[in-house]
Design brief:
Blueprint (H helix, E strand, L loop, with lengths): L2 H8 L1 H20 L13 E7 L5 H17 L4 E9 L2 E8 L5 H14 L7 E2 L12
Antiparallel strand pairs: 1-3, 1-4, 2-3
């Protein structure tokens, strides 16, 4: 048996005291941790989801996805554009360069989509729905 193990077994009060001090120090460090060490990062990604009831995936692609892609592809700092058309639904995901003002990008996308001549029964997801589903 090593000397440290012998001391820990003979002086159990000292072992519990050290363990308690470590727990108290850990709790104190967690509470006082500065927020600066956990940066707030805004990912430059936005999504456009539209619902086109009763439409096939081909109709959704032709009437919704392609026009929406066209309006987004003209925005500055666009890095990647990914789209999916399914029966009754279109999803377009746009990734921009870091440092891009996403509030301005989202406003531009909303304005450009409002100007499109989309079918009358198109519905967007509610305004209050989060723009980004990648967090946490």
């Amino acid at each position: 048996m090593s000397w440290l193990t012998k001391i820990a077994l003979k002086k159990t009060w000292l072992t519990f005291l050290i363990a308690g001090l470590l727990i108290v120090a850990s709790v104190w460090a967690t509470i006082t941790l500065k927020v600066e060490l956990i940066p707030d990062i805004e990912l430059p990604v936005t999504t456009v989801v539209t619902i086109h009831p009763q439409a096939s995936s081909e109709e959704v692609a032709d009437q919704v996805t392609v026009p929406v892609e066209g309006t987004i592809s003209g925005i500055a700092n666009l890095k990647h554009l990914i789209s999916t058309s399914a029966e009754g639904m279109s999803l377009v995901l746009a990734e921009f360069e870091y440092g891009t003002d996403m509030d301005a990008v989202n406003a531009t996308i909303k304005k450009n989509i409002a100007a499109l001549d989309l079918p009358a029964d198109i519905r967007s997801l509610p305004e209050k729905m989060p723009q980004l589903h990648l967090e946490e």
